[in-house]
Amino acid sequence: MSDTSAPSGSIDRVASELAARLPALHRALDRRVATTYPHPKPPEGQLLLLKFVAQQEGATVREAAEALLMKPNNVSALVSQLTALGLLERRRDSADKRVAHLHLTATSHRRLTEVGDLETAYLAEALRSLTEGEMGALGAALDALGSLTRHLHTAAH
Q1: What is the pTM of this model?
Q2: Which of 75, 54, 67, 60 is nearest to 154 (CA)?
Q3: Which residue of 1, 5, 16, 114 sits 20 to 30 Å from the alpha carbon of 76, by its own alpha carbon?
Q4: Does residue 1 register a pLDDT over 50?
Q5: What does residue 12 show for φ and ψ, rounded to 5 degrees?
Q6: Cα torsion at 33, 44, 40, 88 (round to 10°)?
């Protein structure tokens, strides 16, 4: 059930704050990880594709393109780049040789795990500095952020 009773000004303020703060949070976390992570960070598109394949091992280029809201030819170019770097494998479908399934290499699995561990550690460290009320508010906001993400993703299709 959707609650549409919030005043328009309040919605606009929250939308504006989210648009400003979420990228800033991401950049701050990304920079913090970069200070300790020993490998070069892949460009954002490559990283998004690697994270998608980690969640959907065996996905096709078309499935990745749909999930990431990208054009299939752009995802195909990213796959070629990541394959050349030894971070992604293409495995031909046994029934249809025109279809390739995407799989992470052992190196990609290891690096994504390392980055995820660093992100979790740095966020946990920052979260410990919050008040109990702030932590409660963030916890309560997680489901709403998930719903907001799903709505934006669906609308972008």
Answers
A1: 0.78
A2: 67
A3: 114
A4: no
A5: -60, -40
A6: 120
